[in-house]
Amino acid sequence: KPLTKHQIADLAILVALASLVVWYILDALSSSTQVLNLILILPFTVLTLLLCLIQFIYQLIRPSVEALSVEAVKSVLPVIALFAVYTLTLPWLGFDVGTCLFVGAFLWFHGERRWPWIVGYSLSFTSIVSLFFAAMLPYPMPMLVFPS
């Protein structure tokens, strides 16, 4: 059966993403092949390319899907605005507080109303990600609660 316009667009995006990932790893390898410089890049490259391949195959074998409704597109706009506010306020709120507020607001926007879940997940995710970045990045991140 022939591919629909939406399937072709999805496949093109996957090919573009995989191409950018391959370009990035080739650029990183040309800069340095030391293990410490590639310790995060190489596993994430392999994982991303594997996920692209899986999704590419899935796109080829799945039945065609109708176009998204206007309502579905409109529901994404508040999330885009939320992310824009998140990135613009990072210098003042810090990565840790900003991420916690963003994750909590995102969960609330998507229908989660149990406050223990929202607070618990936001704090857990923020703690893990903030501590990871503070330990792994060679430059300090703007943080209010965690040491940078």
- What Rg, in angstroms, do the CA atoms define? 19 Å
| Overall mean pLDDT | 87
Structural class: mainly alpha
Percent of sequence in beta strands = under 5%
Query: How many helical elements?
Result: 6
Helicity level: over 70%
How many beta-strand segments?
A: 0
Q: Give the ordered list of helices and strands.
A: HHHHHH
Q: How many strands, which pairing sense, and closed or not: the largest β-sheet?
A: none
Quick synopsis:
With 148 residues, the chain is mainly α. It is 76% helix and 0% strand.
Describe the overall structure:
- The structure is a single chain.
- By secondary structure, the chain is mainly alpha-helical.
- 76% of the residues lie in helices and 0% in strands.
- It has 6 helices and no strands.
- It has helices at residues 5-31, 35-38, 41-61, 70-74, 77-109, 115-136.
- Helix 1 runs antiparallel to helix 3.
- The longest helix has 33 residues, at 77-109.
- The relative contact order is 0.08.
Relevant terms:
6 helices
Describe the secondary structure blueprint for this structure.
Elements: H1 5-31, H2 35-38, H3 41-61, H4 70-74, H5 77-109, H6 115-136
Helix pairs in contact: 1-3, 5-6
